[in-house]
Amino acid sequence: MEQPVILIAEDEPIVGMDLSDTIAEAGYEVEGPHGDLHSAMLAFQKRKPDLAILDIRLHDTVVFPFAEKLIAEDVPIIFHSGHLPLEEVSNRFPEALALAKPCPPGDIITQVQQTLQPDQNRADGEQARASQAARDPETA
Question: What are 39-48's pLDDT values in tens digits?
Fold first, then answer.
């Protein structure tokens, strides 16, 4: 089975490399990090990723139009920013996740896994609830 491809758009070089290393060490294929919107868009045109992790601002450019294009192509988004306009993000992208920098690597990987495997996560939760109910019927 092929590794899922994660596109990373991050304009801070150290953060971009750290995020790329974290994603690669978790077993995913990394596309990037792309430090500007143009580079990220070209990468997307060449190969559709399975997920995109986007800083909201790449230099002075807001990525929201690019995020809309990704979502239109059924690519899930995780916003990763130090300046999250949370209300605007949640209103504009209700299905996207938003992580504030700095975000622990384990939290990033957990969110990537949950985003890429929502059906598996739902099934795991249902199985855990059924197992708990079998052990303790009063809590079910």
Answer: 999 999 999 9
